[in-house]
Each structure stands twice: as C-alpha cells, then as structure tokens.
Amino acid sequence: MDDSAEIRRLLAELSDRLGKLEALATGPTAPGSSPRQPPPTTATDDVFWALNALKARVPHPGGVVYAGAVATVAGPVEWQIGYTTDQLLESDWTTLAPSISALGHPVRLSLLHAIISGVTTVAELGAGEGMGTTGQLYHHLSQLVAAGWLLAGGRGHYSVPPERVVPLLIILSAARRVL
C-alpha cells in the first residue's frame, strides 16, 4: 500500500471515530449516557429542556434521568444516570432498603454534610455538635460505609465517593417538600 492510500485510510478511520465521539456528546446510546446540553440562558428558553430531551429520547412509558455538576472541596463532580420506567418498576425495590435506611438518621445526615463540606477526620467529626460518643460516631460512620455512602480511608479519614455525591444531593432534593 502506498503512503497516500495509507493516509486516506487513517483519515477515514479518524473521521469515523470523531463522528462516534460527536454522537456520544449529543445524545445517549445507553442508560446512563447523556447529552451535554447547556442550561437555559434566557427567560424565553425552555424551562423543561431536560424533560423535553428525555421525552424525545425515551419512548413510552418513559423514564427517569438524574444528573448534576457539583463543585466539591475534593474537586468537581459531574454525574448522570437514567433508567426506563420498565427498569425501575420491574426491579426489586427491597434491595434498596439498606442504602436508604442508612440515610434515615439525623446524625448520619450531619456526618455526610460535614464530610462533603470538607471535614474528613473522626476527630473533626467528633467535635461537631450532637455527634454523640466516639462509639456512636463510629457506629454511624460504619453504617454509611456499609451502605456505600462513605469511603473509609486510612487513619480515620472519610470521604463521599464521587459517584455518590450527585445521588445524595438528589435524594436530599427529592425529600424536600414542594411548596
């Protein structure tokens, strides 16, 4: 094969790869993938841009997508996942109880709030108001670690895994009462 034929072949391959990357950037191909669409910039923009994009991409009976771009003390976190309605309704919800239950205590929510805000050590966490005894503190931390809401690092350091930041904030958002 001569050099010009090889260059044409490589150019065609690169063009194909670029097209695939652009397709990924403009629309999902599987649950969890997402387009990068800018948020509305003026009052005349579509308030329901995310909902309308979901309805355009997911056929009846629909689906649920949640996403977020969050600046944390550990760095930026961008995350999205989506499920069809059938996937959600056909799954065993009882398997989610331990994860949800771990969030059902005020001290655990306070711990998560402190850790996501930059407090990382047991000593710092224990100094917070209402955290209880050291034994109680470790009990709550172990519950959050077991449910995957926290990672235990060496020497009593804890962090919220990046893949759990947005889901945690979404659960807190969903728990708020809509006025």
What report would you give on this structure?
- Helices cover 49% and strands 13% of the residues.
- It is α+β, with helices and mostly antiparallel strands.
- The strands form two sheets. Strands 1-2 form a two-stranded antiparallel sheet. Strands 3-4 form a two-stranded antiparallel ribbon.
- The termini are far apart.
Can you count the beta strands?
Answer: 4
End-to-end Cα distance, whole Å, is 70 Å
Largest sheet properties = 2 strands, antiparallel
Helix content: 40-55%
Strand order of the largest sheet: 1-2
Low-pLDDT parts are 26-37
The radius of gyration computed from the alpha-carbon positions, rounded to a whole number of angstroms, is: 22 Å
Mean pLDDT: 84
Which of globular, elongated, flat, extended, rod-shaped describes the shape? extended
Put simply, the count of helices is: 8
| Helix/strand structural class | alpha+beta
- Strand fraction equals 5-15%
Helix and strand sequence:
HHEEHHHHHEEH
Supply the key terms.
two-stranded antiparallel ribbon, extended, 179 residues, 49% helix, alpha+beta
Concise summary:
It contains 8 helices and 4 strands, in the order ααββαααααββα. By secondary structure, the protein is of the alpha+beta class.
